[in-house]
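Example 347.
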Amino acid sequence: MLRRGHKSKLWNSRVPVLAISLAFMLVLVILFLVLHNDSDGEKPSLAYEVSEQKWSSFDSLVKLHPTREFRNGTDLIWQVPESPKGVMFLAHGCNGRSINFWDKSPECPNCIGLPEERLLVLHGLAQGFAVITISSARTCWSFGKEVLVVKDILEWWIGRRKLEKLPLVALGASSGGYFVSVLATAVKFNSIVIMIAEGMFEEMDVKEDYPPTLFVHMPKDLYRQQKIDEYVEVLKGKGIDVGVVECMEFPLSPNTLADRIPGLDLTLSRSLFEIFQGKGFVDQNGYMRKDGRRIKWEKAVEEKKTLSLDKRLVPHIQEELNLAFASHEMTSIHSDQIFKWFESHMG
Ligand SMILES: *[C@@H]1O[C@H](CO)[C@@H](O)[C@H](O)[C@H]1NC(C)=O
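Predicted structure in complex with 2-acetamido-2-deoxy-beta-D-glucopyranose:
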């Protein structure tokens, strides 16, 4: 038997101290969680957001059944949800096409469904937007006649689907971002999102009725960061509503690729991560050391004879590696903030 007397005395004297320190720790934990949630997409919650987003997140909410059409020398792919509450035009970057936004399906056998593009479409449809994607005539968008062509296509399509009473918004990334910034002078948008681009604000005359503009950018891209800072002030000076969302790098985990790419299973995701670690493409914390375009990751995978990689997944993996490095890539990570921007400027 233990000497109960001694033990209970010790216990008695320690209970308050223990309780107080436990309560203190609890308060700290709660504070931490609250602050974490409130930061709303800024750096601390990023890892959380990325790990929450899976390629299949929308499976129970929306199914992709797009329609592909050809008009004015280009193709458009679109889908209208039941009782749409708005229309969203998405513009790809250089080398992009409308087929990148939609999964391969019986309706679109040529579709590619890049991970970030498809998630933007799914978010849009889940939020009740009719989504339309159009391909640029050439590798990148141009800012002369092509602006009128896209305006024509949009107006024709909106008229035919009888959506002209609904709010119209646009999101463009990179070349598509410059394009949307110009298109907004020809087409009346309720608001726009310019992603990884500073826009053409030096080349055009921006009027007071220019739409509310959200810049979604990657501060690692210093040149654009500086330009955006500059243009934010210019637009604000004209009384235009402006917002900024910064996208930071995030660490890859063995699961990241499987989480974000349809058709890439967990085993392959883990093997690829191991190769990236072995080759030093990622540091000890999983962060990409360079942009995905600047490392020979495909060659490293080929050298691994035991692994067979479906070539069709290469652009998808490439996109996620670029995104994790966060210098210049299409991103759906901040969709919550993007759609909050659209929602708050629908009137
Ligand atoms: C687009 O096509 C329509 C129908 O063929 C035509 O009327 C219109 O002028 C074209 N728009 C441009 C900008 O080429």
